[in-house]
Amino acid sequence: MAICDQDLAAREENSSSMLPLHVQRVFWIVKSRGVGDLVVGTRRRPEKKTSPRKTGSGEVATSAVANATVSTRSGAPLMESEAPKHGQSSETRANGEPAERSSMAKNAKAFTYRELATATKNFRSDYLLGEGGFGRVYKGQLENGQIVAVKQLDLNGFQGNREFLVEVLMLSLLHHPNLVSLVGYCADGDQRLLVYEYMALGSLADHLLDNTTDQIPLSWHRRMKIVHGTAKGLEYLHEKANPPVIYRDLKSPNILLDEEYNPKLSDFGLAKLGPVGEKTHVSTRVMGTYGYCAPEYIKTGQLTIKTDVYSFGIFLLELITGRKAVDSSKPASDQILVNWAMPIIRDRRRYHELVDPLLRGEYPEKDLNQAVAVAAMCLHEEDSVRPYMSDAVVALGFLAEVPAGCEEKPSSAPQKKQAEDPPLSNGTQQDKSTFDRQRVVAEAIEWGAMRQKQKAQTQGKTTDSQCITDPTEANRV
Q: For the chain, which domains are there?
C-alpha cells in the first residue's frame, strides 16, 4: 500500500500525536507492511510463497499494533492498541478480551522521565555502562528493585525517533531467550529512552575485542556457545517470525552477555521486515556497519535474510580470530578481516593461522575445521548459496557442547534453563541422536565448502571472493 505525503499530513492534522511527520511516516509504513499481523509460530523456510495460516496456541498474535495510535504525553503509553478482531471465537476471555494480547501492552511499560532519572541517580557518570549510535546507556534501579539498563537518545546522534519507534515495536512483538528483553520506554516531550533487562557481563566486544591484560580470554567452547546462541536468535527472527525480520546490525558490540555467557541480540533500531509472498528482497538504502555488510547489499540496496547470514559469517570469524571486522591499527592489507581471512580459508592446512593467539592452541582441531567451514559458507559471494540460519544452528550445536573433562568454571549465578532449547548431553537416546544429526550436518557443510574451494581452484580463480566498496557507503547513517 503506497503512503503519500498528503495522506500523512491529513493523519497528522486529525491525530493528537506530537511526533514529527517523518516519524509518523515510519509508523504508517510499518503499519502498511503488516507488523500488526506479525506472529510467531512453527519453523518455516523464508523467501518462499506460503499460504495464510491461522494463529495457533503457540503463536503470539499482535494485530493490535496495526490499530495503534502514537502519543507523547507525559508518561503516556507510546502505543495504545485496540483489541484484535480475529481469532476471538476460540480464545477469548469472559470480558471479550483475546487470550493473547499484544506483547507491548503486556510487557513494555511507559515510564516518565522523572522515574528514569531517579533510577539512574540523574544519569550520573559513574552509572554509565557504554555509548553507541543511539546514545548513552546507564545502569539503573527501578522502584521495585529491578536492575535495568537505560538507553538515552542522543538528540544529535546518528539515530533518532525512527530507530526509537522501530526498536520499541520490534522488541515488544518479538520474544526469545537470545533477544534482549524490553522492560519499557519513555517518550516525554523530546526525551526518548529505552529500558532493557540488565546484562551483567556487558557486550561481547568487551570480552573479545577490547579485553585488557587482566581479563581471562574467552575459551574456545565459550566462544562457540556464544556463536550458537546468536545463531538461534537470528533463526528466530528469520524463520519463526512472520513476516521475517532482518536484523541488519549484527556485530560484537550488539551482542550482550548474561552471567552464564548466554548471548542476546540488542539494538534493533535498524531492523526491517523481510520480504513476504513472492517478493525476494526489500529495497532500502544501505545502513549498517562497515565490515559486516554483505557485498550485494552494498551494491544494490537489496536486503534479504541472507544479508544477515553474511554478517553472521563475519561475526563467526571474529570469534575464531579475536580480530575486529575492521581494524585500522593493522597493516593496510590486513585491516579488513574478511580480506585477510579468505586466502587462509581456501587452504585447510592454514586454518590454524586464523585462531586467536590468546587461546594458546587450546581448541579441538576438528571443531576448528567445521567452524571455519560454516563461516566460509556464510561468506559465500552468492547469497543464494549461503545457508539458512536453522542449518547453521544445527551445524554449530555440537561445537557449543563442552566435552567431558573440559568443564567451564561455573558462574555464581544459576543458569536459566531454556525449555525450547534443552541441553544436548543429558544422557538420553534422543539427545544422542540430535547430537549425531548436528555433527553430520556440520560435516556436510564442511564438505560442501571444501568442494567449492576445489572447484574454484580448478577454474583458476585467484581473486578474493568478497567485494568491499568504499567504507562511506556502509557506515551507519
A: 35-80+100-197 (3.30.200.20), 204-411+420-474 (1.10.510.10)
